[in-house]
Amino acid sequence: MAEETQTRGEAETKARAALLWRCWPDGKKFCPRCRAQKPYALAEGRLRCGACRYTFHDFTGRWLNLSGLSSAQWVDLARAFALDANTREVAQAAGVSYNTAFKALTVLRLAILAQGTDARQLFSPRTGLSDLLSNGKLCHAPESPVGEVPVYGILSQGQRVFVDMVPELSAESVLHFNHNFHLRVARLGHILITDRYKTYDGLVLCGDDRLPYHYLLRHQGTPFAESGSPFWLYARERLRQFKGLSARRFPLYLKELEMRYNRQGEDLLPMFLDALCAPIPTSTIA
After folding, report:
1. Same domain, 152 and 197
2. By the 8 A CB rule, do 201 and 154 touch?
3. Is the model's pLDDT at 284 over the cut of 50?
4. Across 83-92, 210-219, 235-244, which has the greatest mean pLDDT?
5. 153 has which bridge partners?
6. Rounded mean pLDDT of the chain?
7. What is the DSSP string of 127-194?
8. What domain count does the chain have?
9. How far is CA 164 from CA 202, 245, 248, in A?
10. Most buried in the list 22, 72, 102, 165, measured by CB within 10 Å?
11. Which tens digit of pLDDT belongs to each residue from 231-281?
12. Model confidence, pTM
């Protein structure tokens, strides 16, 4: 038992050192509230800003602080997730409950999304993602979509793909194009994927039972969803794994899959840890 405790302690020390290096790569710490440098140390590892008197610790204001996981649990969870483990497998790898792993993976997906150039757009009230955060803290939000269901476009550029929110379109627009202009649409649960639309390989959205799916027109011929966008063929099988996927959380999974698709064959663990250690960008939170 003593040896096991010592091993866990060594793993925690090593993991914490790795995360601290990512948070403060040059070793120069600053206040997460006013950005003033050279805070002074207090008891129990806390720090206080000499300028605004804010008390904080090394992970304050960063994504990995939005969960009660230890440093070692975060590293174990991120490593399993990098290997494409599901939530139950991630929970087992990190030694936490399923619900704790689900919450932590939500934080990690938010952190991944926040690194993108379109983060501000995706954290807008239109998607409802901003409802998952309040004053830099993760909060519970109802799973029903906010207002109109957002539509996302799949855009290929060579071997890479970008999933972009198309603000001028709504779920009703897609149904209208299908019914009146014969835009082919396929359904995967509450998810709709279309054939090519303008410069996009296809449009994709996730609705709920309020959408009139019965208005979809069926078209004859080879199902385009089986032979269309390579990204959709990649994403489709992974999206099947998620039960009860909501419109609010849908962009989290889309942007995760965009990242995985563009980085196939790469070690994703360093990128995940960097994302978790990044400051939460308050400018992206409505």
Report:
1. yes
2. yes
3. no
4. 83-92
5. 164, 203
6. 88
7. TSGGGGEETTEE----SSPPSSPP-EEEEEETTEEEEEE-TT--HHHHHHHHHHH---EEEETTEEEE
8. 2
9. 11, 19, 15
10. 72
11. 998 998 889 888 778 888 999 999 999 999 999 999 999 999 999 999 998
12. 0.89
Q: Which of 57, 87, 47, 68 is nearest to 138 (CA)?
A: 68
* Residue 87, token pair as written in the block: 């939530």
Are 135 and 128 within 8 A, CB to CB? no
Domain that holds residue 251: 134-274
Does residue 285 fall inside a structural domain? no
Residues 6+ apart with CB under 8 A from 190: 206, 207, 208, 209, 211, 245, 247
CB atoms within 10 A of CB 140: 9
Name residues whose C-beta falls within 8 Å of residue 180's C-beta, 6 or more positions apart in sequence: none
State the number of CA atoms in the 13 A half-sphere of 126 facing the CB.
17
Adjacency order of strands within the sheet including 202-206: 160-165, 152-157, 202-206, 191-194, 185-188
Give the number of other CB atoms < 10 A from CB of residue 237.
Answer: 8
- The backbone torsions φ and ψ at residue 165, rounded to the nearest 5 degrees and listed phi first, read -75, 135
CA–CA dist 199, 196 (Å, integer): 7
The tens digit of pLDDT for each residue in 15-62 reads 999 999 999 999 899 999 999 998 999 988 899 999 999 999 999 999
